[in-house]
Design brief:
alpha+beta, 52% helix, 5-stranded mixed β-sheet, 3-stranded antiparallel β-sheet, 12 strands, 413 residues, 17 helices
Length: 413
């Protein structure tokens, strides 16, 4: 019997129990079909196939013509238009629309832009660790991990510092829409609770969209040479709606995933002191592999959806037009057919063909290099100045089937 991956209670189980179920699913002869949960005001379909093996996830990712990101990839039910206006970014598009937007926004990730950020990134990390050293203990997520990526993304976009906390709060609501801490409502899908949660989700999306759109309007009138100026001016440019959706994608995908990777990293290095010793023994020589192993082991983004466009056989499994599949990156990253001792945290792992930034293909994460740089800079600052920093309790995990998030993490230096 297949565990009900569509039900919130499954995602409230301890992580070890969830990973044990994915291990069982990988051993099945064919991908399991999971009944989809009907969400009031949103809807739902009959269900989806759970792609849990590395080979299935990577092949589906490569073949975007068959395994489509349209009508949406970041929602199991089809996203209604009143949500898509804020969350219908380029990750929910196929070429040529996707290629056009990706070509424009890739300006944010050129070597020139990223190299200009190096000094600012180091300065921001130093200031954050300065405060952590003064505090000596507390919540690592709030005091350290969440602050750097939000600051980096907002600085990239030219968002003033006075808005940074608001951006973080809205991002928490968007990704924590099943978690009562962020929505204030019970996660069970009663109509009233769903209505309240969707209202908060819409408000968060609208706030971030308008923040970016207003900045875009200013830069069209008075370009400054910053990233937003590059995105809204020139032969190829973003509309106000496209800029708002891109900002939501950037701050959600860029800040939340990096903050969770940093949080998971501290927990892993606390639980595996031998791996911490290996890293500190040769930080520059091992930090790149260490970051990739953190991403593989923790997999901050759990899954994305694809929709089949035509009859197709993938690794011996036939699919029909209209079938939904979920690419479970967390399971693919523990696939015994690809990784030796996949449940072992090993920063010397080589090769490490993880799919923590998505599978190969047109939707591979644009910000993968930036995420690695942020992790590297933060861990260098932490382990240089506070080599004994460690967690002092268990993480408080986000209730989500999309993000493997840590809300709170006690620590001491």
């Amino acid at each position: 019997m297949t565990a009900d991956l569509s039900q919130i209670p499954f995602w409230a189980l301890p992580q070890a129990e969830r990973m044990a179920e994915f291990r069982r699913l990988r051993q099945l002869d064919r991908p399991a079909f999971v009944t989809e949960q009907h969400v009031p005001f949103v809807g739902g379909g009959p269900g989806y196939y759970a792609l849990v093996r590395h080979a299935d996830v990577t092949e589906a990712s490569r073949n975007a013509a068959v395994f489509s990101s349209e009508p949406c990839s970041n929602s199991i039910p089809d996203m209604p238009r009143w949500l898509a206006v804020y969350f219908g970014s380029m990750i929910n598009m196929d070429d040529p629309r996707h290629a056009r937007l990706r070509r424009i926004v890739s300006r944010a990730f050129t070597p020139r832009i990223l190299s200009k950020m190096e000094e600012d990134l180091a300065k921001a990390a130093a200031e954050i660790v300065d405060e952590a050293m003064r505090e000596r203990q507390g919540d690592f997520v709030a005091q350290v991990a969440a602050r750097l990526p939000v600051r980096v993304i907002c600085d990239m976009m030219g968002i003033p510092a006075k808005f940074h906390d608001m951006v973080l709060r809205r991002t928490n609501v968007i990704l924590g829409n099943a978690d009562a801490e962020y929505t204030g409502v019970d996660p069970e899908y009663g109509r009233l609770n769903v209505a309240r949660g969707l209202g908060k989700l819409l408000y968060a999306g609208h706030s971030l969209n308008r923040l970016a759109a207003r900045l875009g309007d200013q830069r069209r009138k008075n370009p400054t040479g910053d990233l937003v100026s590059l995105l809204v001016n020139g032969e190829e440019r973003l509309t106000s709606q496209e800029l708002g959706s891109f900002f939501i994608l950037l701050v959600v995908a860029g800040s939340e995933t990096t903050r969770n990777a940093i949080s998971h990293g501290l927990k892993l290095f606390t639980d595996h002191p031998g791996q911490r010793a290996l890293l500190l023994e040769d930080f520059d020589g091992r930090v790149v592999k260490a970051c990739d192993e953190i991403i593989r082991y923790s997999t901050p983004v759990i899954q994305f959806r694809r929709t089949v466009t035509t009859g197709f056989e993938l690794n011996g499994m036939p699919y029909e037009k209209g079938d939904k599949v979920l690419l479970f990156y967390n399971s693919a990253n523990r696939d015994e057919a690809v990784f030796d001792d996949p449940d072992t945290f090993d920063i010397t792992r080589d090769p490490n063909p993880h799919v923590g930034f998505g599978g190969p293909g047109p939707h591979y994460c644009l910000g993968a290099h930036l995420a690695r740089r942020e992790m590297t800079v933060m861990f260098r600052e932490l382990f240089t100045r506070a080599p004994a920093i460690r967690t002092t309790g268990e993480p408080d995990y986000l209730l989500s089937n999309f993000i493997n998030g840590i809300k709170h993490l006690p620590y001491t230096v």
